[in-house]
């Protein structure tokens, strides 16, 4: 019998497009005494070909998942286009105008951004084999939650009286000292806006109170962290993983898990309806829900969607809007926000 050979290589291209070649040579057969090949004990052939992944997920998480995927699909090449939600939306919009979306799989940061494609019938309806592992509130007919992002408060280290809950950010004690990310650029910020807009005790008026208190809008979640660390802001809104990573690297910031709850945002995966390779797209998308992929996601600091996979410690209560209700109000909510902060 000849030996099977397994190889995996990674090749980065210039610009935002990266190609991961997952595997190459898989050949093994045994000859019977008559000299004919016998494959009765061979496993069925796995997927092969190319998957084109469009994602706004952090690079370290994408890398961890692709490494895990290489072990189960060594003959699949994964081409990755990764960009913030706003830039990803712009690329897909341009491709739609040209008549063809270039991606097979969409792995987004938040359900609102992904729902916008579902509402245009651009996503395939599909039920993954791992569907039972996804809680009902994190699934639809066309997209499925893969991880949870928690929007919380970050503040300067060693503050004498740090903020404890969301309303504290509107207090005069924090006047002109709060940073917030732009919901038109960052999917997690858009989802947080959806939560506040749907909360009868807050509404979009919460952002008006932030603005009246001198809060400053920056583009990305990471800019809030940088602004707090550099002293431009005393506090702001950011994601739990981002804050933990910054603290681990020595950044002079601390986390305040809001007493009323961090905003839990689910990160969905979907398959484009006109994907060039539906079968491979669905294979990769479903892989994200498996214990192996979920462990890879958790290893990079995100809360896995599966409750049978251990993730980072959760620091308090979690809250979410009724996502289905917010889906129908996206443009209205963002327009109201823009009337306050512009953009």
Outline the structure in words.
With 343 residues, this protein is an alpha/beta fold. It has two domains: 9-147 and 266-304, D-Maltodextrin-Binding Protein, domain 2, CATH 3.40.190.10; 149-264 and 316-341, D-Maltodextrin-Binding Protein, domain 2 (3-Layer(aba) Sandwich), CATH 3.40.190.10. It is built from eleven helices and 15 strands. The strands form two sheets. Strands 1, 2, 5, 6, 7, 8, 9, 10, 11, 12, 13, 14 and 15 form a 13-stranded mixed β-sheet that branches. The protein has a two-stranded antiparallel ribbon with strand order 3-4. Helix 4 (187-198) crosses helix 11 (330-341). The relative contact order is 0.17.
Q: Please trace the helix and strand order, writing H or E for each element.
A: EEEEEHEHEHEEHHEHEHEEHHEEHH
Question: Main beta sheet: strand number and arrangement?
Answer: 13 strands, mixed
Number of β-strand runs: 15
Total of helices: 11
Residue share in helix: 25-40%
Instruction: Give me the Rg, rounded.
Output: 22 Å
Give the distance, in angstroms, between the N- and C-terminal Cα atoms. 65 Å
| CATH hierarchy class name of the largest domain | Alpha Beta
Oligomer: single chain
Low-confidence stretches: 1-41
Shape category: globular
CATH architecture of the largest domain: 3-Layer(aba) Sandwich
How many domains is the backbone divided into?
2
Can you tell me the CATH superfamily of the largest domain? Periplasmic binding protein-like II
Average predicted local confidence, pLDDT:
88
